[in-house]
Design goal:
Elements: H1 3-18, H2 22-32, H3 43-62, H4 68-82, H5 92-113, H6 121-136, H7 142-155, H8 163-181, H9 201-232
Helix pairs in contact: 1-2, 1-8, 2-6, 2-8, 3-4, 4-5, 5-6, 5-8, 6-7, 8-9
């Protein structure tokens, strides 16, 4: 299985353990595909990311609008450019920064557009998430991701997402990436650049166990209601 397919599937499974909210699931899938932008074969995409950030910055600056979105996009591009593969962007400090930066792009864009559109909030953020997917998802994945995402959005109309959920969903996807990479012989430098120590399968197994426990705790009210319904039936 191709790397992006494996990471996407793993993030999808983890996200479903925590939530059926299509926005959270989509952000987790996008997050899982972000770390590999540090790979040499994706340098062309990194250049495009930096150029896009500069164009957004200049456009918003001229329009006297908050231009920080452009600066954050440039920051992401520069981070990927100077990162070695499976180093900083595959570490705990790295994914915290990547999740925060990506979330800021989404949240600031949401705040910028929300006052100039008549679209409901859930549809507006759905469109922004779809646009974000064009930045980070493999082009072979987009024809599958985009239709399924919008179908789920239309079918499940009553959903919301908070700012903290945006950050956590992206972090879950990013974390799932390094967990899966830890199962490979190369392992991951979990605390790069602070430490060059590599972590392997034991870290991955422990992480999966912890994530399952956390998912069960998050699902406790839902599971209890199912159990109660079953007993009453």
């Amino acid at each position: 299985m191709s790397s992006y397919k494996g990471h996407t599937l793993f993030a999808l499974i983890l996200a479903l353990l925590f939530s059926f909210n299509p926005l959270i699931i989509a952000l987790s899938v996008i997050g899982a595909n972000i770390p590999d932008f540090d790979h040499k074969v994706r340098k062309e995409h990194v250049y495009k990311l930096i150029i896009l950030g500069l164009l957004v910055f200049i456009s918003l600056y001229i329009l006297n609008l908050p231009y920080y979105i452009g600066l954050i996009i440039v920051f992401l591009g520069v981070t990927f450019y100077f990162s070695e593969h499976r180093s900083f962007t595959h570490s705990i400090p790295g994914i915290i920064i990547l999740a925060s930066a990506t979330a800021l792009i989404l949240i600031w864009a949401w705040q910028l557009i929300i006052n100039v559109t008549v679209l409901p909030n859930n549809y507006l953020i759905s469109i922004l998430i779809a646009l974000l997917s064009f930045l980070f998802l493999n082009k072979r994945l987009l024809p599958i991701f985009i239709p399924l995402f919008f179908i789920s959005v239309v079918l499940l109309q009553s959903f919301e997402i908070t700012y903290i959920q945006i950050v956590l969903a992206l972090f879950l996807g990013l974390f799932s990436h390094i967990v899966l990479d830890a199962t490979t012989p190369a392992g991951v430098k979990l605390f790069a650049p602070i430490s060059s120590r590599e972590y392997y399968k034991n870290f991955a197994i422990a992480s999966i166990f912890i994530l399952i426990v956390l998912a069960l705790l998050c699902r406790a009210p839902f599971l209890f209601s199912l159990f109660e319904s079953f007993i009453n039936y």
